[in-house]
Amino acid sequence: MQLVLIDWIVIAVYGAVTTFLGLWFARKAGASTEDFFVAGRSLPWWLAGTSIAATWFATDAPLVASSLVRTNGIFGNWLWWYEAAGIMMLVFFYARMWRRARIITDAEFIELRYSGRPAALLRGFSAVYQGVLKNCVVMGWVMLAMIKFSQVLLGWEPAVTLVVCISLAMIYTVASGLWGVVVTDLLQFTTGMLGTIILAGIVLYQLGGPAEMADQIVSITDNPATLDIIPNPAHLSSLEAVSFFLLIFVLWSRSGQGDGYIAQRLFATRDEKQSLLGALWFNFAGTVLMTWPWIIVGLGSLVIFPLALAGPELAADPELAYPMMIGELMPAGLKGLMVASFLAAFMSTMDTHLCWGASYLVNDVYRRFIRKEASERHYVVASRAAVVVLVSLAAITAWQMESIERGWIYVIEITAGLAVVWLMRWYWWRVNAWAEISAILGSFIFANGFMWIRVLEGLGLLSESALTVMQTFYSEPYDMVRAVSILVMCTLIWVVVALLTKPDPNSKLIAFYERVRPGGWWGPIAKIVPGGSPDQAAWRRWMAWVLGVLFLWSSLLGIGYLVTGRTASGLLFMVLAALGAIATVKVALNATEDHTPAT
Predict the structure, then answer these.
(1) 101-156: pLDDT as tens digits
(2) How far apart are CA 241 and CA 247, in angstroms?
(3) How far from 120 is each of 30, 133, 256, CA to CA, in Å?
(4) Which residues contact 100 (CB under 8 A, 6 or more apart)?
(5) Could you give the CA distance from residue 14 to residue 107 in angstroms, rounded to a whole number?
(6) Structure-derived torsion over alpha carbons of residues 307, 308, 309, 312, reported in degrees to the nearest 10
(7) How do residues 424-433 score in pLDDT, each as one tens digit?
């Protein structure tokens, strides 16, 4: 596909504005690491929430969403929709506590919550594990998506794509830290949404509207599940149905407390109210608003590029469908807008992950263990150097990856074992550093079983029957079953470890409780600390969670039925969504009126 002059003008203007914003905030970010990494704790809810949502809108998401539609059906997008329930738990159970903690990274939380050498070891290990290992996997698949996009739309070689895109993202991240990131994220979210909505509108117009598009899809596809929004056991194998229902009803818990860049944005808000509302806005924007334009394009691709007639490239890699639809349908000028929107999606994710990963390396490794006493300017320089190191490691990771979807699933598995311990470390005084260490190690070992299979097989320590069982368990059809198994096994391990090891000293537990006021199972400590917890009663927070999930899932279903021509069902669910939205926002605002804990 060839871009014309007006396309390149649109792209150049976008790149210039983004770079200008990054450099504009460079001076503001250079005063201290708190300014560089958490924007001086001054973000309003709408900016913090939009920034998180923009990070979700990476180049990988449209490609995978359309690919899931082609290979599974609409319901395949529960591979990331499921997180909505977990993020709603973040809204009502954890957002305000993250803000009260007054920390820079979630790894720093570890030494706020635990004590002694195990806590220091866990903090350093978590910083590397999350900030380098997991972070580079995520940035790797984002870069891979940009490579695929550029191959189809620009004809660029992978190396050229990596050099150009990484340079753009690194310039303003290195210069401006979180301030530049969140402001450019606002621009990138707007650009990205505009481009994807326009493309989805063109698809619907070209195919005669929602109902006509759905009729054409039914007439040319052999997959009865293509238009299923909720997994239908009648259209799936028993194993596939079980896998998706486990994903929807169990694995959402791994997103419950929020971590990484999500927590970083909540640290950076002005107060607890802004933190809670920011998490709520992000959940709606990220889960509902951004989703359906991508899916509409995926559905349209089944008509424009039918499965039976797909060329060898698209047949081998359905993640190419989205950029191919841009090339096929977008006119001159709008193609430039779409390229700019993909650059926006790429950079909004890359800058966030670079800033977040660098905060781990500097705040939780370099400053904590290597150079404890230095000026703030020194640590800002170190932060900028850490960004360069991370982007280099991410590029190497991208070079080795082939499938974005497989990267998504790997991250689900490698974090599944941590789900419950991350939730409970806030609410149960008995959780200690050894419990969390055991969960991390267990999750890493179980998620990388394919590696241990090769090792054990090479050593001759596996019988033929044991090898067959393990190979089956670690095959693709068992992905979600395996993830839930990892969650259950690691939970059993860390609970046993917590009960067999000593709890943290009362002095550490009291200090944490006084700062965060978590509620829950803190009986022995709550008796010592006067005043109790300021949070709502647990049943009220669970009621708010149910209302929030009803709001989000009704919104998903309502829009989904409307854009696939099932108007009556769509309107019904949109009414439920509106009622759920009113109730959820009201509960959220009431929750923020609780008195603030002692600082």
Answers:
(1) 988 888 899 999 999 999 999 999 988 888 888 888 778 877 877 787 787 777 77
(2) 10
(3) 28, 19, 24
(4) 272, 515, 516, 517, 597
(5) 35
(6) 70
(7) 999 999 999 9
